[in-house]
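Chapter review: from sequence to fold.
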Amino acid sequence: MPGTPAQFTLLTAPRLWDGSGDPPLDAAAVLIEGDRIVGSGRQGDVCPPDGAHVERVDYADATILPGLVDTHTHLIAPGDGTAGDDLALEEDGILLLRGAKNARTILQSGVTTARDNGAKNRVAFSLREGLQRGLAVGPRVVVCGRPITMTGGHMWYFGSEADGEERARAEVRKLLKEGADYIKIVASGGSTRTSDPRRASYTVAELQAITDEAHRHGKLTAAHCACARSVENCLDAGVDMIVHCVFTEADGSYRERQDLVERLAKAQVWVNPTLHILRAGIGRLTETLERRGRLSTRQERMLAWTRRELEVRLEAVGRMIRAGVRIVAGSDSPWNAYGPGGFAFEIEALGHAGLSNGDAILSGTAAAAESIGVGDAAGRLAPGRPADVLIVRGDPAHDLAALRRVLDVYQGGRRVERGGC
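The token string follows.
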């Protein structure tokens, strides 16, 4: 109403980590007006205008951070171990409802921006529209719609199979027409039953056609790479982000491939390693063993394989970190046994791999936002930016597990209702 005083919210806490990469500030505050941040810094330097109506919220033994940015989600999945092949058998309406439910859970956990890395048919577009209209509650989402894959390739069941340079380029145009924010490429096989994760799917020429068409329209690309050849092909094709970045050879063996690590660092591509999904699988099988007292032969083999794979992947990511590869956090949840709302576990996993706590936090805030093309609007707390704020108990600069101790989440200046979370 005309003449109504501006509404301000002043958040104060012992610590503020603003996403700039600078050390945390003590005795800090964030001032919000409407949906924007208008002040951030030490409490004595952040003051509302004289006479303004201000809601003051003080958090003891807490840290104020930017809302988290998850670069890799699959919002339509249940995260209960259901295989993707079986997930795709569900009706689009059910997938949309599950996506809305997961979006709420993810937002309540502190993720205010998320990139969806592939859904069936037009479900991701519908979910994004519903969130923008306020028909559902969740993070701001960046969507690819459907991943582009070879016939029978990983995630073919989502609906965008394309072979050859011309058809692959045409599929990019189709997705952009439908409203894709970026293009997801499936550059190797994966968990899909008709695919082989040890082998590259697309040729360099096909990948170049996809990447060129996306870049001509100002869109980023990201590629699923579960084997060394697919990583090499994507580097040759100029893909912007390598997802998983596994160095498995066609015969199933693993080599360090320091040559690829050095190429990744030199090219300054983003790498999203997806480590915690392995830990989640180990946890699920361990719980089954404790509950039943035994595992099937297949489950025993899977548990042993996953433990070895995690060890290998942690070592590989550690080498990437030491080489200066740009690492970002993306959960890959709720896929496989990695349920929604646990993005902080991925940030912790990157800490275990070798990132400092500060860099691990950056990997899930400012760096993550930059890597998915929203660095001007997410991942940092600064005047003029959207007021997406996370408050956690404790100090994540010393203990990354503090990111799981969520006290409050603000999205666009509004406190998120978290219920029993």
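Two observations follow directly from the output. The chain has twelve helices and 16 strands. The first strand starts at residue 7 and ends at 16.
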